[in-house]
Amino acid sequence: MFVEGFVAYLSMRSFVISAMMGKDPLSDIERKGPGQPRQRDNVIHPAGAEMSGSSSRWRRESGLFRRWFPWLMPTFVAINVALFFITMYINNCPKNSFSCVAPFLGRFSFQPFRENPLLGPSASTLEKMGALEVNTVVHKHQAWRLITCIWLHAGVFHVLANMLSLLFIGIRLEQEFGFVRIGLLYVISGFGGSLLSALFIQSSISVGASGALFGLLGGMLSELVTNWTIYENKFAALLTLLFIIVINLVVGILPHVDNFAHIGGFASGFLLGFVFLIRPQFAWVSQRSGVPSYPTSSLSHRYMKYQYILWILALILLIVGFTVGLVMLFQGVNVNDRCPWCHYLSCVPTSSWSCKTDAMYCVSSQNENQLNLTCQGNGRSHSYPSSYASDSQIKSLCSQLYVNGEIGSGYFHRMSPKRVDVSLWLVYHQEFSIPSRTYRQETFR
């Protein structure tokens, strides 16, 4: 059911991207320009498409409403793609698995399709590269994973969908607001998505840029709200934007999609939009640009009162939310215990799929030159003729035992192990958990 769920997710993403290619969600919005009176006070906004001489002078002098050259979002795309190639190079599937997909790619070949249907690396490689894994964040104090996970992806399909979305959403915003504000909006929203995901999903590792992407959508929505009075045709744009947001959030209730990262990223971006994307009102702008027809009695401050109020409230909510979330995370709080119904926000079980995400556990023991593994998730057991195996190799074996059942006895010979002696670790029959992102445990963004 994972493959069907992902296909539905990718198809819906493609639909949204196609809609954006044909029409920007905010393309219906135009700033009030010369000859476009504002109904309430019969004045004009000087930043329209056809700029008057005084408005052009104002644009040059103030730098507001300028069009920025978008270089940061394409750079982010290049970084994500480069990191995916690096991850696949480190993964080196032929060394750790006997049935890689596209073996002609050498060490860039993909994990077995039943282990990772996204055409990507193993869970252990993603964890090594900086994926979000709650136990590691809390007990090993690796909080940096809350940021690094947004630059990693689980497979070709995953990175393709996210990067196309980033190009079509991010470039438009960077042109409007510049690389500093949109860059901060992207990264902080991604952090917010990771934080909420870590509070609710603690049995799987998580990677992906969707939390940051939802932050951009949230920022677009709050920018429209806080700058409401300076735009024309805003209701059509608002409905289009809300439709895109709702569709993406609804798709997030499919199994193995980290919808908490989506929700956390969207909420963070929505609040950040009130802080970063606020624009001066046209009364103040017209005063600065020296529009002679502008009535003196209606001149105002740079921002309206409601903009100041939204700015203050959003900043307070951001600080309080991040602080409380981090405290709860490092205290080991599982929010599901306090909100028993919240898991439905990420996955709604139906007759077609299940939302169970039980963690995989393997009990391992060593007898002379034989390694014995028992998968606690399905009760399967198998013995492997080897006394040496690395930690990543054992985790990979456990993962494949969970998915495929018994693995051929020649597995270790094909792996060319690094010959790390783990017999002391195995002799006590220690139990290790693999919060895997493979097959049934997949939670991507």
Describe how the helices and strands are arranged.
Layout: H1 2-22, E1 30-31, H2 53-62, H3 72-91, H4 93-96, H5 123-129, H6 134-139, H7 145-148, H8 156-177, H9 179-200, H10 210-226, E2 231-232, H11 234-251, H12 259-276, H13 282-289, H14 305-330, H15 335-338, E3 360-367, E4 370-375, E5 381-384, H16 391-404, H17 411-415, H18 423-426, E6 431-434
Antiparallel strand pairs: 1-2, 3-4, 3-6, 4-5
Entry summary:
It contains 18 helices and six strands.
Tally the beta strands.
6
Assembly annotation:
single chain
How do the helices and strands follow one another from N- to C-terminus?
Answer: HEHHHHHHHHHEHHHHHEEEHHHE
Q: How is the biggest beta sheet arranged?
A: 4 strands, antiparallel
Distance from first to last alpha carbon = 17 Å
* Mean of residue pLDDT values: 75
Low-confidence stretches: 1-8, 33-58, 405-442
| Count of all domains | 2
Rg result:
26 Å
User: What structural class should be given to the helix and strand makeup?
Assistant: mainly alpha
Subcellular location: Membrane
Keywords: Hydrolase, Membrane, Protease, Serine protease, Transmembrane, Transmembrane helix
Domain Peptidase S54 rhomboid: 141-277
Organism: Protea cynaroides
